[in-house]
Amino acid sequence: MSYLPLVGLPADSYESHGFLFHSIGDKYLRAVAEVALCSPVMIPAMVDALELDALLDHFDGIVITGAVSNVHPPHYGEQPSPSHEPYDHHRDAITLRLIEKVLKRGMPLFCICRGFQELNVVMGGTLETELQDIEGRLDHRAPKHDDVDVRYAPAHTINIRPGGVLEQILGKRETMVNSIHRQGIKRMAKGLAVEATAPDGIIEAVSVRDAKTFAIGTQWHPEFKALSNPDSVKLFTAFGNAVRAYAKARGKPMRAIA
Q: Can you say how many angstroms the Cα of residue 182 is from the centroid of all Cα atoms in its chain?
């Protein structure tokens, strides 16, 4: 029997009518299913009811998604303020522990936007907020518009580090990306390497130093309409290939990719 690798994606949480809900944006799931060619599975934001090590035994890769919420500042040594809001404590509780465990296992890991920031925090880095209010910074927020294609349209270039992991995947040293965030990396964790920067110096992509497999974070959203974006196809294909290699190394018979 052939096997389609499983990729776990931790959920966001939100309250409505007195109930707690868990959710993941369709665009992340489709990028994993349609481009990485893996089976996406939601991991609910309920760390108190899950045994993460046993759960990770079933997965071959992890994608940490973006979100409306921001990482709670005490996780990186700062005091919370209205400028850091909104928060999602249920998500923090599971993603920060999950990333740590995934890194220790050497599993393929793709961290996007909030996930990119969470990766930095887990590894000892810090974040800065409201970039648009800082002198010399671009406004990295999405334009206020009802059309999602306008909000996620390419917003600025990024410079890609020569000889880095990202250049090896994309095959170039500059590209255009969307920009939908208020926070960014302030102090980068020592265990990370810069893969790309925006024109104002904001770090746009990182890789985990000495990683044995795909372990990358992007501040932009490559999952948006991934099939129609050549850069996104290359990123999710590279991630999917790493996931299949990880699964194969664990003795799982891989389904042939057409």
A: 15
Active-site annotation holds for 78: no
Tokens describing residue 30:
């489709």
Residue 113 known to be catalytic: yes
Among the listed residues 249, 258, 256, the one whose alpha carbon sits nearest the alpha carbon of residue 60: 249
Residues 6+ apart with CB under 8 A from 190: 123, 124
For residue 94, what are the contacts with CB-CB under 8 A and spacing of at least 6?
Answer: 10, 43, 45, 46, 47, 50, 52
- The pair of structure tokens assigned to 208 is 């985990």
pLDDT tens per residue across span 48-79: 999 999 999 999 999 999 998 899 999 999 99
Q: Which of 84, 113, 181, 204 is catalytic?
A: 113
- Determine the straight-line distance between the first and last CA of the chain, rounded to whole angstroms: 17
Whether 223 is a known active-site residue: answer: yes
**What is the tens place of the pLDDT at every residue in 240-254?**
999 999 999 988 777
Q: What is the pLDDT of residue 258?
A: 59
Angle (CA) 219-151-237 rounded to 5° is 50
pTM for the model: 0.94
* Annotated catalytic residue, options 118, 195, 204, 223: 223
